[in-house]
What we know:
This protein is α/β, with parallel strands linked by helices. The protein is built from 7 helices and 7 strands; from the N terminus they run αβαβαβαβααβαββ. The two termini are about 20 Å apart.
Amino acid sequence: MQTKEMNDLQGCSSTLILGGTRSGKSAYAESLLQNWINKKIYIATAEARDAEMILRINKHRELRGNNWETIESPLDLVPTLQKHASNDTALLIDCLTLWLSNLIHAGRDIEQECQKLADYLNQSSTRIVMVSSEVGLGIVPENALARLFRDHAGKLNQLIANAADNVFFISAGLPISLKVT
């Protein structure tokens, strides 16, 4: 059975799913593509830098099941999207804020990389669902790196929300529609 959101997304190519930590973003993003009968590619941006992250990545893979091809793309997201773009393929990026963190740590030009992604979304017809954390709802972080990350994440989310056909905010596992075209 298809969800109302899935029916609403039939003609759309890009959807952004925002929410806080453990809000249900990834599960909701995956549910939007559960009835997609063609190829599904999960683009993972997380890097397994420690034992705890390895466990998180493995748990995500288990929950997804075998219906997804997984591609790891911690930095070069747009080239990965270009390589796998197809009208019979759905791409799920999880998550943009981990990608942003990777870019910051790698010393990449954040604004340029984010703009490249937005530009790609504006011209792509491939179905792309993106997950991103909303980090600007809490208190102001006490250190400069955390404030820099929060500021870049806010700008990234605004840029991608503008480029996306649809935007949903997830709170307590429930979707709130912010933009549906």
